[in-house]
Design brief:
Elements: E1 7-18, E2 21-32, E3 36-40, H1 47-53, E4 64-72, E5 75-76, H2 84-90, E6 91-94, H3 105-115, H4 122-132, H5 136-139, H6 152-165, E7 170-174, H7 182-195, E8 200-204, H8 208-214, E9 217-223, E10 229-236, H9 237-242, H10 247-253
Parallel strand pairs: 3-8, 3-9, 6-7, 7-8
Antiparallel strand pairs: 1-2, 1-4, 4-5, 9-10
Helix pairs in contact: 3-4, 3-6, 4-6, 6-7
Length: about 260
């Protein structure tokens, strides 16, 4: 693990509620810059909940409440004077199922950049964003086509391109390949490896092999007796997979539960 000063996001004593239900309990972790951190654990253990605290997406859920601190570049994003919309511009999100806008491929990229005040050359931005997600060669001759005409894997890469276009520092990915076929999944994994040169990435995945292939660090979550998710341990992916410090981690990694 790295020093706290090297984290771009630091979560401290986080408790996330949905109404009276405590979904994530006493979570402390950090994301190192330009690294991929995988959040793993059985269903319902709070992985996606914790991921969404990193850009205040839980704010959009009725009855949600967050206690604790989440620091991005040294500032607590839950301070009252922080604009959550600005937080989400700097910390982008890619969801489990591709969700392109029912607009042209071009407008999917341009729209988000436009509403965020982009003043540069839009054609260049669209091309650059699509190249970053290895999609340009596949769609450069059909930019006016509806994005919904693309395959599922192409749609997911388009959604990543859309997130990249607003020039964030961090990308949060909630099981981005779980709805895709193996070939499309491999493309997403290759893409993540490329993107970490520029962005810090946190990814929720149920696929242990995927976590092992693409992540630098891994955080393992479980649930307690009251169904609250908590962090069991976090470390380098090699350490978590081959020399975990907690027997529960070893049991999960080896497939004995979960």
């Amino acid at each position: 693990m790295q020093k706290e000063s090297e984290y771009i996001i630091t979560i401290k004593n986080l408790n996330q509620y949905y109404g009276d239900f405590l979904a994530a309990k006493d979570v402390n972790l950090g994301l190192e810059k330009n690294k991929v951190t995988a959040l793993i654990g059985p269903s319902g253990c709070g992985k996606s909940t914790v991921l969404r605290t990193m850009n205040r997406m839980n704010d959009l859920i009725k009855g949600a409440g967050t206690k604790g601190e989440v620091f991005f570049e040294g500032k607590n994003i839950y301070d009252k004077n922080v604009d959550p919309v600005e937080v989400r511009r700097k910390i982008g999100m890619v969801f489990q199922k591709p969700n392109p806008f029912p607009k042209s491929i071009y407008e999917n990229i341009a729209w988000g950049a436009r509403i965020n005040g982009f003043q540069g050359n839009m054609d260049e931005l669209v091309e650059t964003s699509l190249k970053k997600t290895a999609l340009w060669e596949e769609v450069k001759d059909k930019l006016k086509q509806n994005a919904l005409s693309l395959s599922g894997g192409q749609q997911q890469r388009l959604c990543i391109a859309r997130a990249v276009a607003v020039q964030p520092s961090v990308l949060l990915m909630d099981e981005p390949a779980s709805a895709l076929d193996p070939i499309s999944t491999a493309k997403i994994e290759d893409l993540i490896d490329e993107l970490k040169q520029t962005y810090t990435i946190a990814i929720v995945t149920h696929n242990m092999q995927q976590a092992g292939r693409i992540s630098d660090y891994t955080a393992f979550f479980m649930v307690d007796e009251e169904r609250a998710g908590f962090l069991v341990e976090m470390g380098s992916t090699d350490q978590i997979f081959f020399n975990p410090s907690d027997k529960r981690t070893e049991a999960y990694i080896s497939g004995r539960f979960g």
